[in-house]
Amino acid sequence: MSQRRFPRPSEVEYPAELQGWEEMYPPYYIFSPERADWEDRQFWYHDKIHAPDPMYPWDLIFHEAWQISLSQYNTRVFCIPPAQGVAQRMVGCYMFICAVEPPPGEIIQKKAELFQKRVFYVFEHFDELYEEWLKKFKALGESVEELKVPKELPTFEPDEVVFPAPRGYFTSFEIIDSYDKLVNAVIKGWQYHFEYLNLSYLAYLMFADTCRKLFPTITESTIGKLVAGAVVTMYRPEEELCKLARLAATMPTVKEILKREDPPEAKIEALSRSGEGREWLRQLEEVKRPWFYASCGSGWFHYEGSWINRMEVPFGYLKSYVERLERGERIERYLEEIEREREKLAQEYRALISTEEDRKAFDDAYRICRKIYRYAEDHLFWVEHWFHTIVFGKMWEFAALLKRYGMIQEEEDIFLFNRFEVPMILEDMVTAYALGEGVPSRSAYWKEKARKRRAILNAARSWSPPPALGTVPEEIAEPFTVMLWGVTSEKVDEWLKSGTVRPEEVSEIKGFASSAGAIEGRARVIKLLEEINTVEPGEILVCPTTNPSWAPVFTKIKAVVTDIGGLTSHAAIVCREYGLPAVTGTGIATNVIRTGDTIRVNGDKGVVTILERAA
Q: How many angstroms separate the first and last alpha carbons of the chain?
């Protein structure tokens, strides 16, 4: 392109097979003529970290929630001076986002005053504040678990709700009320989600900025090592699996059963026949709640499932762990070594500081970052895994009820309707029920709508939207856009040039130096969630982005390369925690590298070199 711009939102051409996609989403998610002046002025890009695939309408609820929550903490609560929100729009079933331009100068000044008072209070009191956060969040999740979704509609309401006086509300109301409470809990849960998340990223940015000022030659990967090594909840599911595997290694019968290729149900049945097997199963049951409420993916989408309802996933990890223990391999992360290296490194850099004032600045920034930065991964388990598992569980209960009464063809069809439409289907069902025997609903209407939408989503999977929309800023400097999403001016330049270079001609790829170290090895390219089990020990994982649930894989790979993500992305954080070299935000790794290629990952410089192509 001669200009540094992508198509305007109004210039995007959609395949004919996508006709009608707009009605799947809330109207404010669609680019619109009345907002064109503002929308055309922004720079929009596909959010491949949180929404790489076409969006099922109901699954959008979590994104709706984070748009409001992330933004209001920046703009109205903690008042980060230049920061505004992150806006979302749908483009042919794909979600695009933009960092909203800074507010006027007088607003920045007013926000700065509140920022100092509010943010540093949180930094100083974070430990006790987090304990309170965890209590209220667990209470919210438990309230969702307690919601009643009937398996069937009673032919007649039972006597106990009529005598000694009619209760006044009955099954029809309870169904509608439970759904409303579920949706409200999701929105509230995400208000809680961002309570300290932006501040944890901010603490990292402040610490990194302090390091750059005091040590001009310090690398980004070294800064990352200075914050690595944390005891965080997101790693508990994996840690509990390691304990179960080590226990199994002491029980010959259990060990042999876990090594079989049988499905989980068969293994559980076989284990239940022996005393040591029953003891191991007892330990398993104690671990499952809450630690098996871990998503098999990101936690954002209904089709991913969680360990608790896809037991083949944790049992697959257990099989691998038991086999690795037999070979004498370590299956846990080297947390103690990472912590020792971090403290040694911090003392070395601290010794270079010549003034007491600078030393205090370093100590304060380091202490604050170490204290609050763990929230970035710690809250992840409770919100996107434990809580979302509960939420999706309730939605499947609603789906079973709707299918039982013929409102939808398949249970999964409920997710083809957005959160505002599901109440209409539920009300249609209970209205026909309340009216009496033989009264029809509009089930055929909902089934046909679901059929069309499924076809649209299937078509969208074959369509590649443009990587971005609108005019490219002179410089992309918004810190969260760079640090979390990994979108930089250089990366956008690559998007503009996409299609001009053939993958086989590329021998070197650049990205963020996200986790220190350099290593060579065989690449394993993973593009689909279900492919993660194909990763072999000693390989280098190359993927669009990592999922927190992949933690058990990180103890057997050598390094990670991602298309998407900056220095505070999940891939960057988890690789620092496992002491693995990582280059993130390359933009093109999964298109250029092939499984079997020999590559070198330099996490100190942010460079990936293709040494030898697979035959």
A: 36
Domain range for 553 = 480-612
Lookup result for tokens 């619109």 = 32
Residue 593 forms part of a structural domain: yes
> 470 lies in a domain?
no
Last residue of a domain, one of 326, 347, 378: 326
Q: Which residues contact 221 (CB under 8 A, 6 or more apart)?
A: 513, 514, 515, 516, 517, 603, 604, 606
Closest CA to 25 of 50, 68, 60: 60
Structure tokens at 360: 């205090």
Point out the domain boundary residue: 276, 296, 326.
326
Record the pTM.
0.94
pLDDT along the chain (615 residues), means of 10: 75 96 98 95 91 96 97 96 95 96 95 95 95 98 97 96 96 97 98 94 93 95 89 90 97 97 97 97 97 94 96 94 94 88 95 97 96 88 97 98 98 98 98 97 98 98 93 80 83 72 81 94 89 91 86 91 88 89 90 94 95 90
Q: In the structure encoding, which two tokens stand for residue 301, read together?
A: 């989408």
Rounded to whole angstroms, the Cα distance separating 610 from 444 reads: 55
Per the domain annotation, does 238 fall within a domain? yes
| Cα–Cα distance list, 114 to 172, 201, 466 (Å) | 47, 18, 39
Q: Is 87 part of a structural domain of the chain?
A: no
Strands (E) across 482-562 are located at 508-510, 512-515, 518-525, 540-543, 559-562
Q: What angle do CA 134, 484, 548 make, to 5 degrees?
A: 55
Count of domains for the chain? 2
